[in-house]
Specification:
4-stranded antiparallel sheet
Length: 293
């Protein structure tokens, strides 16, 4: 498949602010890019008990300037970052078994789940992975151990759960649907806003979707971190509204296992941001199918 050229020099990371494993990315209403990384820690099980000492949350301007960094001493194995419509920063930590909401400045405001306790019920998680938002609803893809989407009110009150997934790794919404990256089932599960499954989009060749975001009009952008033979990489796909693949692009680094595409976000200016766990980077690029229109 064709390779896409990423924007060289984006972002500009000052000395002393090196990325670790870069797991999550999202964009706020102003176009600022929020990046979650593990600051020297690698995914290894059993997970350690001590928090990461260095800042794990970086905020960049659309041009790539580092505006803020925080999160030191707070996360053990941070995974997903999502910015809600009010600008609050929601982060999942698979080792803490918690979902945490912060102010944009990094003040902890809300904690869901019991630290270190794995259960599938109203007050616990099983390695929560990702978060999306609908009016009055916080949707948690839960997760690596659990098999569901768990819904909460913005104040943290449990609403309900639904689904039967094998690693619900990412979740996204548009005006009509909820999309779940059902990673180990090698599919994207499409639900209406009530949680009823209305379609399933098998991943090409049994590949594993790690992240997804809507493009509008029922179209979807997804990133795959592993193929059907469990080889790591970073492949971006555009899905039409009915689930047909419109286009595919390779954005991985050269070399076997050099990249693992993990999460993605779309800026208001149309730029795409993808995190690469193995490559220790977040990249920015534009889609030919969008810029040609």
């Amino acid at each position: 498949m064709p390779a896409l050229v990423v924007d060289a020099g984006w972002p500009a990371i000052p000395a002393g602010a090196k990325f670790g494993e870069v797991s999550g990315v999202d964009v706020d209403a102003a176009g600022n890019v929020w990046v979650l990384h593990r600051a020297g820690r690698k995914w290894a099980e059993p997970f350690p008990k001590e928090p990461i000492a260095e800042p794990t949350v970086f905020k960049f301007s659309p041009e790539g300037k580092l505006l803020a960094q925080w999160g030191a001493g707070q996360f053990i194995m941070p995974h997903g970052i999502s910015i809600d419509p009010a600008g609050k920063v929601w982060i999942t930590d698979v080792a803490r078994e918690q979902v945490l909401r912060f102010s944009p400045e990094g003040a902890l405001e809300l904690t869901l789940g019991e630290q270190g306790v794995t259960k599938q019920d109203a007050s616990h998680f099983g390695r929560p992975a990702d978060i999306a938002f609908l009016p009055g609803r916080v949707l948690v893809a839960d997760g690596y151990v659990n098999t569901r989407v768990a819904e909460f009110a913005p104040d943290g009150k449990f609403i309900r759960d639904w689904g039967d997934f094998e690693v619900a790794h990412a979740i996204a919404v548009d005006e009509a649907h909820i999309y779940v990256a059902d990673r180990e089932h090698a599919r994207i599960a499409v639900h209406d806003h009530a949680g009823k499954e209305v379609a399933t989009w098998p991943s090409p060749a049994g590949n594993h979707t790690y992240g997804l975001k809507p493009l509008g009009g029922g179209r979807l952008l997804a990133v795959e971190g592993r193929d059907g033979a469990d080889r790591n990489g970073a492949v971006v796909r555009i899905y039409a509204a009915g689930g047909k693949v419109e286009a595919s692009y390779d954005i991985g680094l050269p070399g076997e296992g050099a990249s693992l595409g993990h999460d993605l976000a779309i800026g208001p200016d149309g730029h795409i941001y993808v995190t690469d766990v193995n490559g220790g980077r977040v990249v920015r690029f534009s889609l030919p199918s969008l810029t040609d229109k």
